[in-house]
Amino acid sequence: MVAAGAVALVLAVPLIFLLLEAAGAHGVAHLIWRPLTGMLLWNTVRLTVVVTALCAVVGTLAAWFVERTDLPGRRVWAVLVVIPFAIPDFVVSFGWVSITTWVQGFGGAVLVMTLAVYPLVFLPVAASLRSADPGQEEIARSLGMGRVRTFLRVTVGQARTAILGGCVLVAFVILAEYGAFEILGYRTFTTEIFTELQVFDIPAASALSLVLVVVGIVVLGGDLALRSRGRPLRSPQRVIRRHRLGRSRVPVVAGFCALVGLALGVPIGASIYWVFEGGVHAIAGASVLDAAWHTALYSAAAAAVSTVLAVPVAILSVRHPGLGSRILVNSTYLVLAMPGVVIAFALGYFAERYAGGFGYQTAPLLVAAYAILFFPLALVGVSAALAHAPATLEDVGRSLGYGRLGVFARVTLPLVGPGVAAAFCLVFLAAVTELTATLLLIPTGVQTLATQFWAYEQNLSYGQAAPFALVIIGIAAVPSYVVSRYFERVPGRAAIR
Question: What percent of the chain has pLDDT over 70?
Fold first, then answer.
């Protein structure tokens, strides 16, 4: 309780800071009720709703075809449809904008973000379908339901919790995104907050940050309310019989080809094209290795910190359930309501104003921002692994004379090792592709792959930006593969906790 409480307090620092700044500022209410806020709210909410709905449809259908049908090459497709998870949203936008101009605005934002984040729904839904009881679908068919009704009422009902979990992640990605919308010319809260910070309008940035946090809290509240009415999952009692696609095989395979081609082929193909278009001089003049080293260093440090901090919270959640622990654990998820620009703004402004500039634009502060921002990802991975580890083995260890620390080191850690590794990879992947917090807190004289890419892209130097995009994809592909493999092996109930 003490360790988890300390972690929750650290995670709440940015939110507490924003509330204190708002309470002490003059005219915050006036800034919030401006017509601009209404326009940003409309842009943000409608995009979030549309993209989340599309991702739910695309991710669920793709997961069902891969897990429940005789789709040709389904193991290959299972990997290909997840790889877009490793491509940053701003790189996907760069790929589309660099080859066509019609993706600007709302329509382009819907297309790009759907292609970029649908794997967040595919992964948990696929894990859920692997653990769901196929007998319920067979009973529904025997009672006269058609395939479509069975899918909508039974299959989707069994995967409801997984779908909701993926949709919440998609919604928070949309709320936090900056780079993709800036490239696409679509104004949201995040783009406007970053603009206000660039001109040092702190009151306006604080007011918009508070509105964005409230929107995030509403999303969290809606998720908790809907999950409480979800159906429990059942473990399969027999081998799943895969549905035969028959005449639908050709159009289904064509659909997967189109999905992978648009989500994966366009950003990678465009980046490769601009590398050759820029020539050898563009590559030679870029400090790719130095930026890659700093990216990997900061991301690995943040992943280690987040994973370590997640351990006591996960133990409290799984091994000691109760009202107090539930409230404490759920409070840590409030970080999801604070996008990277808000957390970086809070930490940076605190260091500059109250700490005399100590730590501002240094590596420790950037790592701290990463660790706070992506803590929920680490907590999900560690909690899923701990829920899957039998508690009886820990009791056996204690009966043999080992103390709590001895049991934790010799029994618990080996059992949760794969989950801890998956949690580390999740945070590492997110940190590698993070842009807004990095732009605000990057140490002086240092560049990461994301910031260097952004500098070249903003100057329309596509040939120089493309190598950084490809290196980001290459670095992120490894943890993305590890995470996808972990979701393939972990039971569905644990995967969507």
Answer: 80
